[in-house]
Amino acid sequence: MAPRGDAPANDSASRTLVLGIDGGRRIVQCGPNAPAVLGHDAAALIGRPAADLVGEEAKADLEALLEAVGAGQERTGMLTVRRGDGATTDAVVTAQPMVGDPGERPAGLLFVRVALPPSERYQDPALMRRALMDDPLTRFGASLDLDQSARELVEVIVPHYCTTASVMVLESLVAADEVHAESGSAVLRRLAVTSDDNNPMWTATFPVGEVLIYPEGTPYRQVLDSARPVHLPHVAAETAGDIAARWRRGPAGDLLTGVSMVLLPLIARDTLLGFIACTRVPGFRRFDAYDVEIGMEFAARAAIVIDNARLFSRERATALTLQRSLLPNRLTAPSTVEVRHRYLPGSKLVEVGGDWYESIALPGARVALIVGDVAGHGVRAAVTMGRLRTALHTLANLELPPADALGVMHELMVELGEQEPHFATCVYAVYDATTGTLEIASAGHLPPLLVGPDGAKEYLSIPPAPPLGVSGGAAIESREFTVEDGSVFVIYTDGLVENRGRDIDDGLARLKGIFGPGTATRSMEDMAKATLAGVYADHHRDDIAVLISRLRRLPADRCASWSLPTDPAAVRRARGLVRAKLAEWGLEDLAYTTELLASELITNALRYAPGGIQLRLLLERTLVCEVLDRSAALPRLRHAADDEENGRGLLVVSELARRWGTRRTAAGKVVWCEQVVPGVDPEPEEPVTSWPGEAHHRE
């Protein structure tokens, strides 16, 4: 009996001779195919030492195999064996002990397997068909990965059908798009190449991953145009040279000279997906019509595998794109505020759950810091989360105060709840880097953690309110805190501090313990990693979102503010103040435009707002000009008629400024405009990192 794992298959490209060895390591039994395997007559081998089968350099290796047999162990090795004609060949030799009466059996068996000579491969179509259609197809058909399926496909077809094979598919398949351009002009990608003749030129000339369009007049173009197999029994040197010339790929001519070639189209659901290029190098039997028939049967089944992998890849890419679009690609904040996040879905089946986070830079050196949690898990919670995140992002850009923004979100959740019951918790904070104040509103969320630069830490008390979408209870209110420079602000979802085996109070104590006296100088990345330490092993955890920010004020010399009287002369005074401050900042090039912008904004305030006016300049990544007045009415941009003398101020502002906007305050409103500072990127690119949930199950 042949050893499991080394048993020679009837359809393999090899021959195996079985020899019986006695205790004296002599051959006592011999299979009838000794002449085909070793070129020796079977009877002539009986009684000879087993060592006579191998060359001098392999005797020690054979001795080791036979010693293992004496110890009752099985061993396999690659040895150089002698043929009857004096030539040598490499063989895989397996020594296997026998069990039974030593007087009635050999002590062990030797299985000597050698490769078939080229002239004898591919002779039996029945063996070829069985090798291609049985277990191998099932094996590579189990994968839904397009690249892996292609690699396993060529590993099956070589060596059972040809000596070299490559798989070409439409580039649209790899890109997870709909299949298109099925004609010869289609763009294709080579997914896999293999050969069994140890010639590295095949993979060098036809590299994996190459994207190309085959030239007209080549057999490759023919199979794409016709969607039928192309059979070239013998590729003459002239034909190979013509293919290479049209392709402008000289080495291809040398490789294809003298080969036998078959190009098998891959067709599934009446759609051409690509083709398999099969060649047999000179010395092997050439392809005939029956070989083409066998190849097409294999290609038809292989096309189904490729198509299933294509459909899976497209659906998976669509799902991942939609999921990843639900979370922010980047976090923005003023230059004085550092922000880090961690996101960990509770399920390995999805990459996004119901938790979300945001850091949105706002005009006036402010930043909105948000964390929320939709009740539930999986795709439904993620879809609702995406709606809420988009809505809250819009409300933040409209510069609504935190309590007002959450109030609008509550109405949205009530509306969504009419279709399907939903509720969510959310904490919304706005930090002003000019004043060092932090305004926070919460809807049923866990308390934020504030860690001072001296290591003092406390959970902030926010006026309680029910979750978004839950009617009744107290109204959503905000509370303002003054924070010390360098404080760390942490907001999170309940999955971080609560699980089935731990009380929430223990989780809150653990989170507080992460931050200590060294927090002021500790790297943000280290703190972000520490928050998730130990949670990866919990396979029943909830979704987790954490947002950590280090809050610092804008330097005093980067902010200037002036109170102006309600007097037309205030416009001229404002222009002088702006000119002097920009000269101090080295921004003389922006002086004229900024003076004009300030003039227009102050003129509007004088015309429509009662009481005093305040002018403020902020130099951060951009130059911001703000005018504060005591009127709650928000200005709007309009286009004045040709005969109107007024109404063009905001039009001038919108044309000269990078952007402009308004926001209400407790005392009135702020109208602001922003300009780009020469040499400073207003939105610097952050280092490219993996998207928030890409490696969420790696520690």
TrEMBL record:
Its EC number is 3.1.3.16. It comes from Actinomadura macrotermitis. This is protein-serine/threonine phosphatase. The keyword Transferase applies. Primarily acts as an independent SigF regulator that is sensitive to the osmosensory signal, mediating the cross talk of PknD with the SigF regulon. Possesses both phosphatase and kinase activities. The kinase domain functions as a classic anti-sigma factor-like kinase to phosphorylate the anti-anti-sigma factor domain at the canonical regulatory site, and the phosphatase domain antagonizes this activity. InterPro entries: Bact_Sigma-Reg, GAF, GAF-like_dom_sf, HATPase_C_sf, HATPase_dom, PAS, PAS-like_dom_sf, PAS_fold. Keywords: ATP-binding, Hydrolase, Kinase, Magnesium, Manganese, Metal-binding, Nucleotide-binding, Phosphoprotein, Protein phosphatase, Transferase. GO terms for biological process: regulation of DNA-templated transcription. Pfam families: GAF (PF01590), HATPase_c_2 (PF13581), PAS (PF00989), SpoIIE (PF07228). The keyword Membrane does not apply. Residues 334-551 form the PPM-type phosphatase domain. It is an enzyme of class 3 (hydrolase). It catalyses: O-phospho-L-seryl-[protein] + H2O = L-seryl-[protein] + phosphate. Residues 145-316 form the GAF domain. GO terms for molecular function: ATP binding; kinase activity; metal ion binding; protein serine/threonine phosphatase activity.
